[in-house]
Amino acid sequence: MALFVLKFGGTSVADVDHVKKAAEKVAGELRLGHKVAVTVSAMAGVTNQLVDYCRSIAKIYDPAEYDVVASSGEQITSGLMALALQQLGHRARSFQGWQVPVMTSNAHEKARVERIDTQKLHACLEEGIIPVVPGFQGVTQDGRVTTLGRGGSDTSAVALAAALKAGRCDIYTDVDGVYTSDPRLVHRARKIPRITCEEMLELASLGAKVLQTRSVELAMKYSLPVQVLSSFEDAAGSTLPGTLLVSEDAMMEKQQVTGLAHSRDEAKITLAGVPDQPGVSAAVFGPLAEANINVDMIVQSGSEDGKRTDITFTVPRADLARAQEVLNGRKDQLRYRSVLASADVAKVSVVGVGMRSHAGVAQTMFKVLADKGINIQVISTSEIKISVLIEEAYTELALRSLHAAYGLDRGS
Ligand code: ASP
Ligand code: MG
Fold first, then answer.
1. Which residue has its alpha carbon closest to ligand 1 atom 6?
2. Quick one: 27 and 159 in the same domain?
3. Closest Cα to atom 5, ligand 1: which residue?
4. How far is ligand 1, taken at its centre, from the CA of residue 123, in Å?
5. Does residue 78 have its Cβ closer than 6 Å to ligand 1?
6. Second label for 391, Cα 20 to 30 Å away, from 29, 108, 155, 352?
7. Which residues surround ligand 2, an ion (CB under 5 A)?
8. 122-177: per-residue pLDDT in tens?
């Protein structure tokens, strides 16, 4: 008998009716003869409200007390889920994170799971009782409540599945899988039936916000099959076609390009006319790192005269003003001619593990963009990803053209 962990996200438990529907999914899985443990998020919007309460009392608050408040949304839904399951005639009970316990580090607000004691949960399962464990919550060695960072209930679910040695972890959310591109922009986007964890990590870090990144890292570490599913379909997860995250070895035929991602959260900075000599990059990027500003893409052009060069890089758009401040404050030391900044950019990326073995993926990208008259401002690559920075207005055109060119279009 297979054991599955079913996780329901905030929109899947958005109100009591949704909780009841989610409970029916659990029941459907039981009817198929599987054992189930359940993890739930807080009702959609509730965690935001709880965070606002904390912030309205103190701008700089005690993170340990924040965790007490923020974790309470999941307490509510775990109890409601147990009640809904009981109402369907099943035996169920909730366990708060500290009752399991889900042991974490003491980094409040962003704690890491260190160990999950599965004894009580297994005892429950053996007796035919469905354990319902709130996501997001944990407890420190000295008994303080923690949370795992926003979106952390995905990580809770995968960690729980790994600890229970479950056969699969099903993540129910408001989309029915991971798509080849954002379906709101690319109408011919398709659901990806199987994707490797590596690809999912790239897509997630590039702005396809389906799963918390740490949950994918955990799935990879434990080779745990994780499935992303819509909770708005009627069937149970075992019969629904979602997107299954698998390890690279389990992928028979590797796609050259599995999906496209885009992000409008970046801004570009060019330092024009910096001295072309050792130590310049360290002098530029050191202070930005100290100011906690994440630099992503970087290019430095060769200098014509060997004396001066330009450095262009991207930072999160929200940090642009701060980054400019840091650089302006060091003008004397950095001796650049000028700082040019633009928020009018978008990053478009193609991702696929097949890139490791296929040549020409980059060339296709450059050619497609050239044919559409789209200028590439910055390029960066990794083994399974190519990203370009372009003018924001061309985002959709770029995505649609690339989607077609790589044969990703629905019906193609
Ligand atoms: N409720 C938490 C949040 O909104 C955790 C989660 O839903 O994943 O961030
Ligand atoms: Mg989430």
1. 151
2. yes
3. 151
4. 28
5. no
6. 352
7. 9, 151
8. 999 999 999 999 999 999 999 999 999 999 999 999 999 999 999 999 999 888 88
Mutation test of ligand 1: which of 47, 54, 72, 174 has the most ligand atoms closer than 8 Å to its C-beta? 47
Q: Which residues pair with 342 in a beta bridge?
A: 268
Type of residue found at 236:
A
Residue 307 gets which letter from DSSP?
S
Does 83 share its domain with 229? yes
pLDDT in tens, 183-223: 889 999 999 999 999 999 888 776 667 888 899 999 999 99
Q: How many CB atoms are closer than 10 A to CB 305?
A: 7
Helices first, then strands: H and E counts in the chain: 13, 20
Q: Please compute the mean of the pLDDT values over residues 101-128 and round it to a whole number.
A: 97
CB 260 within 8 A of CB 349: yes
Domain boundary among 224, 250, 276: 250
Paired tokens of 374: 């789209």
Structural domain count of the chain: 2
- Beta strands (DSSP E) in 247-327 are 259-263, 266-275, 298-300, 308-316
Structural domain of residue 146, as residue ranges?
A: 3-250
In ligand 1, the atom with minimum distance to the C-alpha of 9 is 7
Q: What are phi and psi of 133, to 5 degrees?
A: -115, 125
Strands 129-134 and 91-94: parallel
- Alpha-carbon torsion (171, 68, 115, 107), positive or negative: positive
Return the best residue to mutate from 12, 43, 51, 136 for the ligand 1 pocket (most ligand atoms within 8 A of CB): 136
Helix (H) or strand (E) holding 6: strand 3-8
User: How many angstroms separate the alpha carbon of residue 9 from the centre of ligand 2?
Assistant: 6
